[in-house]
Amino acid sequence: MIEQFLKPATVDEAVRLKRQYGDKAVFMAGGSKLNAAPTRTDKKVAISLAGLRLDAVALDNGQLRLGATLTLQQLIDDSRVPVALREAAGFVYSRNLRNQSTLGGELCAKQDEAVLTPVLLALDAELIYADGAVVALERFLAGGADSADALLVALRLPDPERPCATRKVARSVAGLRVLTAAVALSSAGPCIAVEGVTPTPLRLRDIEARALNDAALEQAVSAAVAPEDDLRGSVAYKRYIAGIVVADLLADLSSGTPTARKEI
Amino acid sequence: MTIRFSLNGCAREFVGKAGENVQSLLFGLGLRSVRNSDDGFGFAGSDSIRVNGRIVNASLLIAAQLDGAVVETAESLGTWNQLSIVQQAMIDTGVVQSGYNDPALALILTDLLERCPEPTREEIEDALSGLYNRDGGYQQIFEAVELAQRRLGDPMAATTTIPEFRDDLVHIGKAYPKLDAAKVLQAKPSFVEDDIPANTAIIKMLRSPYPHALIKRLDVSRAEQLPGVLLVITHQNCPDVVYTPAGQTAPEPSPLDRRMFSRKLRHVGDRVAAVVAETEAIALEALALIEVDYEVLAPVMSIDAAAAPGAPVVHDERIDYVAGAPADLAEQNASAAPRDERMVFNFPIGARPRENIVAQVHGKIGDPVAGFAEADAIIERTYASKQVQHSPNEPHICHTYMDGDRLVVRASTQVPWHIRRQVSRIVGMKQNKVHVIKQRVGGGFGSKQDMLLEEVCAWATCVTGRSVLFRYTREEEFIACSSRHVAQVTVRVGAKKDGRITAVHMDFKANTGPYGNHAMTVPCNGPGLSLPLYPCDNVSFKVTTYYSNICPNGAFQGYGAPKGNFALTMAISELAAELGLDALEMIEKNRVQEGQALKVMKAVSEGKVPAAVPTAASCALTPIIAKGRELIEWDKPRPPQGDWRFGRGMAIIMQKSGIPDIDQANCLVKLESDGTFIVLSGGADIGTGLDTVVAKLTAEVLCCPIEHVTVVSGDTDHTLFDKGAYASSGTCYSGNAAKLAAEALRAKILFHGAQMLGEAETDVQLVAPGVVQGKQGAVSLAQIAHRSESGTGFGVLVGTASFVTPKYCFPYGANFAEVAVNVRSGEIRLEKFYALLDCGTPVNPELALGQIYGASMRAIGHSLTEEIVYDASGVPLTRDLRSYGAPKIGDIPKDFRAFMIGSDDQVGPYGAKSISEIGVNGAAPSIAQAIHHACGVWLREWHFTPEKILKGLGKIPA
């Protein structure tokens, strides 16, 4: 149980406190994961991020900076945020949760379900830390910049106008997701990301490079993912539906038609 | 840590632990609206509060996060005991049923209307996305929002969606606020958890991690020595009494096959030891100190595994019979395990425990062999259903304490009288020393018909003398409850070319799990409530129920009817397709007609064969099917759109209104000094509105306003015996008892009124508002009551009555569904769902609609998203609402409508029939039929998933 709740007023103070308490402490933004029964923290000290004013949305030279403590509902309510990211935030089917969960928390928790991550991967999001370090989300997910002491202060979308679409597959609106996928169209070609059917959220770069469409893309994605049999579905189903979803997202984006279905 | 915050407009200060859970904190401060349905998983939203203007889950916050915050709970909504516009709209549209998390709903809707005065459907759904409400199917919430919106402009705006019935009656068939709605909505003390003394001890249960095991060694000494531990109950020190958890009339048809604790563990979650401690934290710490060595046994997890030769035996203890022991009992007992344990059958139900068979029943009418020989086409198919859970918002809970030499049991139960009988026997007290009080029940749906924790709680109080609380976690609801029996139903149907059915055979196999509560009666209702829908002269059936090591099963709304009806409707539909007939035409050709004899019901029963062949005395299926057909545009197919295909399906359904010759209800109505009435009803209102039914019936008979009637119910000290809330008996049995008691009192009132007037009894009548009117004068009820209580009076006037009947009272209905199936992704979208029911005269129309929506949505959830799933070793994986697939508002059909089409029935009070259960019986077959119509795939196993569609379409390997 949290025994000490520290309320720094500045980012520097928060970082200093983390250095001081080390492994005993955890940064807490909304607390929807750290306080939830299945993922409750065993740390004794919480360093609150609530007073750090890290919830701004800012456009800068065509790049979009999203504060780490923006709640998912704030993302949805801000028209400057890319539509696909707003839709992905809505995949968390609980306004109660969305009022509490933060963008940074969704990433740093590295939970099994990461429904925002494919969109952020497809948009080449970068993580900005308190010390000014910038780490590509893809590298972060691969464990390349994982540090519990580092304080994530914002995300940066270098190309927020990039056409992007996302879709979640689940049996019920609030049930366990089978997969989430996102596809974006960059100047270099399609950006394809999935989660739920790979060990961690992943850009499918090999497939992106092959510039496939339709059935060929379906088959390539089906072959590329590595799902497991579980109560969400069989391996065969997950491979099949991953290919379908990615191919449909790309087809919709390429044709310029809005995605007819955000969720399956 | 000192935390200062604003709570409902008042400055508050809390000194305590920074990490204290805010739900516990606020509930402990008396904010009862902040309830707990899911132990901090963030799914249910019963703990919704508004913090700094945003709705969040209290259980996902710690106390320190409240420092400096503005906190609002649902207690802030009303002022001076007056309901807010939103709260009143919820009541007027029938939204409030159990009321357990309706305060949270009211807060969310209030927030919505403040943010968004004219919300769209999408915005309403979005606002409610954080709330799980099992009661009412969500649909009426849209009407409540619309009404609240209108009342913000016009405070006098009225509901427009509640139909009225029976112009000849004053109260019956008219909307009236549910008697307890305001109280539960304002979160006034209503539920068991709302009134727990501070020094109450807590029970926590150590449960088996294995589906099948023996306790080899159990050492609780370290737990017992932990300061704050009062008692540890195990198989070594619990009462040596066998019983059934089933809340049924004695002698129970269910086997007495469980002991409070046993050396043998038969499912993941079975009881190993209960710790009774001063606090929950101490109890949990003590659980970790208990040492257990298990001998792990091979589990049986399915019907086929249980039936296989040489299968592990779930019940290997000695078998005894109270009556009718089989001739080979000694032979059966020769292989009994050498443990000092036994199971008892009150009478034979065809059990063969060593073969894992707990019950077997078979029967026939006519000549099925000849019937099949006569058929032009015969089809035989097997249909299966998975295990699903009731998942009420309020978990099981019980609070016990001693009142002098008497044991008081405050329970959230459907069966207070059965609980008293069972607890008395188990703890060894006479029934006059045990007082069971049914509190408001936060949803039951059958699960609270079984005794799952009351006897442990009672025993803990008996031993320690302490006030004791036992509340299930949500995980315990899944692993230690009584879910729906798993079924495997093989149906053979023969028919002529024109679709006329010539013979039917149903082989109903059920998996009861580790204990046999309702093991015979649930499966018997499979054929019992499906075969009579299609009266046929040549019918045979067989029912076999198996023990296994899945988590326990028991009573569940609908009993066996949803599974039997799914199988039979699907078989008829498949046969219709083979014959080239429209499924609805074939159903119409063979379905039950009003007045028709239901011969098969003489052969299949719940333990007592009817004295005479029951008839469908009242049945409105003709207008129901006509209306449903028109509404869904049955004859106008929808063309495909891209990958989407559209299809329609329908199923007819029936239920009973109590069990003739088995059920009984009693009631007493007394005249108070001022001419008002107090009704002492044994009936158990579990959120369905039974108390309101009883009040309306009393007021109708006694010609008084409903406000002049107060109902006291479900209390074994202060009311008369009633078998409880199950088998859809409430309105018919408890209602009839109230009506008869009121009529008995009316006769006395007229007798004494006539005497006071000096007129002949034949010349007086009781008229509104509570006046005995003679030819020459009138005397009020208050004057009669005053006279009765005077020193020269005739004594307090009381009417009592008991209701039993050999007659059946069947509600009928139909579900019509339209689905869209995406043949590329397998997605199933429920476009339309229309539930049309003949519940006779609906006593509370707005509440009846809520019952229909709620039951329909539970059945839709069971059909499309819900399932208890196990891993290969028999360990359940779905132990929370989310992984289980509990539906939320975004899962309801796009077009969801309920209709009541009455018929004239002579058994129920003023022609009322039951309403609550029948609604779960038709979703699966109507949806499955629609799926086939859309894409050509027959899905023969609940639940229906995109993966199964894709397999059926050959897109992925089967």
UniProtKB/TrEMBL annotation, chain A:
NCBIfam families: Se_sel_red_FAD
Domain of life: Bacteria
PANTHER family: XANTHINE DEHYDROGENASE FAD-BINDING SUBUNIT XDHB-RELATED, XANTHINE DEHYDROGENASE SUBUNIT C-RELATED
Name this protein carries in UniProt: Putative selenate reductase FAD-binding subunit
Residue span(s) of domain FAD-binding PCMH-type: 1-162
GO MF annotation: an example: oxidoreductase activity
Keyword Flavoprotein attributed: yes
Keywords: FAD, Flavoprotein
From TrEMBL, chain B:
Gene3D superfamilies, per the entry: [2Fe-2S]-binding domain, Aldehyde oxidase/xanthine dehydrogenase, a/b hammerhead, Aldehyde oxidase/xanthine dehydrogenase, molybdopterin binding domain
Pfam families named in the record: Ald_Xan_dh_C (PF01315), Fer2_2 (PF01799), MoCoBD_1 (PF02738), MoCoBD_2 (PF20256)
Alphabetical keyword list: Molybdenum, Oxidoreductase
Superkingdom, taxonomy of origin: Bacteria
Stretches assigned to the Aldehyde oxidase/xanthine dehydrogenase a/b hammerhead domain: 186-298
Hydrolase found in the keyword field: no
GO molecular function, one term: oxidoreductase activity
Coiled coil: none
InterPro entries: 2Fe-2S-bd, 2Fe-2S-bd_dom_sf, Ald_Oxase/Xan_DH_a/b, Ald_Oxase/Xan_DH_a/b_sf, Ald_Oxase/xanthine_DH-like, AldOxase/xan_DH_MoCoBD1, AldOxase/xan_DH_MoCoBD2, AldOxase/xan_DH_Mopterin-bd_sf
Family: Belongs to the xanthine dehydrogenase family.
Protein name: Selenate reductase, molybdenum-binding subunit apoprotein
Native organism: Propionivibrio dicarboxylicus
